[in-house]
Amino acid sequence: MKEQPTQREELEERGEISERRETRGRREAPRRRRERQSPQVQINLPLILSALALIVSIAALFFALRPEQAEEPPAPSPSTEEPVTFRFGDRTLTALEGMPLNPYDRSAFTVDDQGRLTYEKDGKRAKTGVDVSIYQGEVDWPAVAADGIDFAIIRAGNRAWGTGVLMEDSKFVGNMEGAIAAGLDVGAYYFSNAITVAEAEEEAEAFLARLEPYKEHITYPVVCDWEYLGGNDSRAYGVDGRIITQCIDAFCKKVAEAGYTPMIYFNEYCGYIKMDLSKLTDYQFWFAQYSDAPSCFYDFQFWQYSSKGKVAGIGSAVDMNLCFVPYGKGLVDIPEPGPEETEPVESDPVETAPVETDPADPAPEDSGTEALGTVIIDAPPVPAVPPAR
Fold it and tell me: pLDDT of 237-251, one tens digit each?
């Protein structure tokens, strides 16, 4: 007969069975968890794959439909061009950026039968004019008009280079009224010696007040004639060129606001060395150089070519000028030569006076020109614009 297990043995046996069950349960638990999770993995994977496929399809469609973009040009390489330069006396100057250059044909400047320079191009002839002040004395304007003069630029006043006092030209009214009555086109100029913007504006206001009675008759430019005169005794001696440029600009702005055509007078020294013409391109230029043809590097509208002109009705030497743009009555049409007309006889070259300045001398006191034949005033050269070409 089989021996019955004791209670203790039964308990131990039950414990082993329990342990085996727990061990089997621990082994089976992960499998059951995997079995429970496996349906979820099977559901999400297709969704993920479908989403990825959709994203890829959208991206492919976007790139297929996107318009082609032009290739960006390569960045420009640093400029290796040499700056444009020109000679003035013994100096080599760099040309100012943005400045229109001298357009005139030197071969088109000739001397007429009166010994005066003229310019003819493309069927047009430049106008001939004079600029006058008290230093020309009494002027017989009908005689001037009859002597082939088309226009007159008349001085209204000046600021004394020594004291800074504003002065009126006592011949202005008579000259203005006489020139208008004689049928000439007229403009006016003011000899400026402003050394501050406030002074320049003061000069312009005094100038404009004198012009007001003749405003409807003024068909030519109204000129700021700023020059270095008086040497080291001048109140403007040593004033920086940037300040002078600002003064001229302020003066001309006042003139423009009053409805006139502003113009600036300068010779080579002032234009190249003392002024910054690139800051004054809103205004017309009057260039002074006594020669057979102007050599100014930049464009200009008036050219003062001599201070020793001889004109009927004017008892002293007078400044002579050419105008290249159609102010007032415009340029002169050159008639076609008739079959019986002959070529004009060539005359001796016009006698001209050199500009009274040493181009190589930087001192402002040695750079002024006495274009008006006086120590105090210089004739205002008008920058010339190219004639119809």
Answer: 999 999 999 999 999
